[in-house]
Amino acid sequence: MAEDDLGKKIAAAQKAHEQSRNVGRRKDVSGRGMGVGMRMASEFVASIFVGAALGWGLDLVFHTSPWMLIVWFLLGFATGIVNVVRVAKDFQSDTNDGQGDDRSEQGL
Prior knowledge:
Strand content: under 5%
Structural class: mainly alpha
Order of helices and strands: HHH
Shape: rod-shaped
Distance between the termini: 40 Å
Radius of gyration: 25 Å
Helix content: over 70%
Number of helices: 3
Number of strands: 0
């Protein structure tokens, strides 16, 4: 009988410990959010600038102004969007690892 009580106490303590770990992890995620947002913004802007610079340089070399600039600017823009989506997916998968999906627990 004492073993049943001890087993229940151990299970309750493990559950409380797991819940406290998940709460701490959620706070950490919100703290990292600003860093991830800055990374997304810098990669997006950098890819546009690199694309525009390459296009401008190719226009100077091939005397096709402004066509290479326009094409490479658009390619840089598309690359920036792909990078932002990739970083967002990585961040989301990092936050969901080990926590489970809160929506499934809430019945959503």
